């Protein structure tokens, strides 16, 4: 571990000053369990899941055969996910294959959802969020939010809620949280430990605004995409129709959430010290060519 840290430090010796957000966050790495095979993590868990799935098939005697086979597939897949028998994406791809082999669906019906437009809509949101993180636009957003707040807690929370809700309108809630999370962690880490209620208030503000923003647009969350697709099959219902109803409700809900949080968790009369943040902002104030391209793609997507 020491060698790794020394290598990282030596590699960054010639670079510019460390980012304010990166300096605040304590990174935690996740190591996958030891693999017995490239696509198999545990033979023991695979045997256990197989036994439980087989018992499920025999316990449901008396039910229609299609129901028994579908339930068996469900139990097997759920067990593989919970016990991490295979990599999670591999388990997901196994489900339509198993349903086909067991005769529940024809191959064309089982794999049809993979070509659904909703899938590509979700992938687009994921790629968009990842590009924002990769090219440092999340830090640029964070610096500007903190600067425009002028150190005032309530104004900062309102700006964070608005930014989180706006991002969540165009990408999934998970991606929006991933983009905004470094900003929140850096602020929480810099706060004194006694400001517990303020930390709770900020975390609640982010989670609530993500959910609210996800309902404003059709692209905001997976349930919204699915609901929009189902409505589109029976009615002339599209993106603008969803925004016509969803956007006003989301704006009203976001305002009510901010006022309610301010009432339940009054902010202390403190002002954040933004000297270091302003200094860092000067280094990232001018967007490079790649960042401008990402913004153009984002605006074009909207």
What does this 3D model show about the protein?
With 302 residues, the protein is an all-alpha fold. It has two domains: 72 residues, no CATH class; 185 residues, no CATH class. It is built from 15 helices and no strands. Helix 8 runs antiparallel to helix 9, helix 8 packs across helix 14 and helix 9 runs parallel beside helix 11. The longest helix is centred in the last third of the chain and has 26 residues. The protein is elongated and about 70 Å long.
Describe, in short, the structure shown.
The chain has 302 residues and is an all-alpha fold. The chain contains 15 helices and no strands.
Q: SS-based structural class?
A: mainly alpha
Count of structural domains? 2
Q: How far is the N terminus from the C terminus?
A: 44 Å
**Percent of residues in beta strands:** under 5%
Order of helices and strands: HHHHHHHHHHHHHHH
Number of strands: 0
Taking the sheet with the most strands, its summary is: none
Assign an overall shape: elongated
Helix fraction bin: over 70%
Tally of individual helices: 15
Topology record:
Elements: H1 2-11, H2 20-24, H3 43-59, H4 65-83, H5 88-101, H6 107-110, H7 117-134, H8 137-149, H9 153-170, H10 173-190, H11 196-214, H12 222-234, H13 239-264, H14 275-284, H15 289-301
Descriptive keywords:
302 residues; mainly alpha; 15 helices
């Amino acid at each position: 571990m020491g060698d790794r840290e020394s290598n990282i430090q030596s590699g960054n010796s010639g670079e510019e000053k460390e980012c304010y957000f990166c300096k605040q966050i304590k990174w935690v790495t996740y190591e996958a369990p030891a693999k017995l095979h490239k696509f198999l993590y545990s033979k023991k868990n695979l045997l256990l899941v197989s036994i439980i799935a087989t018992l499920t098939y025999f316990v449901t005697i008396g039910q229609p055969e299609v129901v028994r086979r579908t339930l068996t597939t469900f139990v097997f897949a759920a067990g593989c996910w919970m016990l991490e028998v295979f990599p999670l994406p591999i388990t997901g791809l196994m489900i339509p294959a198993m349903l086909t082999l067991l005769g529940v669906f024809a191959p064309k019906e089982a794999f049809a959802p993979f070509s659904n437009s909703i899938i590509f809509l979700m992938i687009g949101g994921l790629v968009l969020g990842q590009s924002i993180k990769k090219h440092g636009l999340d830090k640029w957003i964070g610096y500007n939010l903190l600067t425009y707040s002028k150190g005032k807690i309530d104004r900062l929370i309102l700006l964070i809620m608005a930014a989180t809700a706006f991002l969540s309108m165009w990408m999934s809630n998970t991606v929006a949280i991933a983009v905004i999370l470094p900003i929140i962690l850096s602020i929480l880490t810099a706060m004194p430990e006694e400001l517990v209620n303020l930390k709770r208030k900020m975390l609640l503000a982010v989670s609530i605004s993500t959910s609210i923003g996800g309902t404003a647009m059709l692209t905001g969350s997976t349930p919204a995409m699915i609901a929009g697709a189902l409505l589109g099959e029976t009615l002339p219902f599209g993106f603008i129709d969803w925004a016509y109803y969803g956007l006003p409700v989301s704006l009203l809900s976001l305002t009510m959430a901010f006022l309610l949080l301010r009432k339940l968790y009054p902010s202390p009369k403190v002002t954040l010290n933004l000297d270091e943040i302003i200094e860092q902002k000067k280094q990232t104030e001018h967007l490079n060519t790649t960042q401008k391209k990402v913004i153009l793609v984002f605006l074009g997507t909207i």
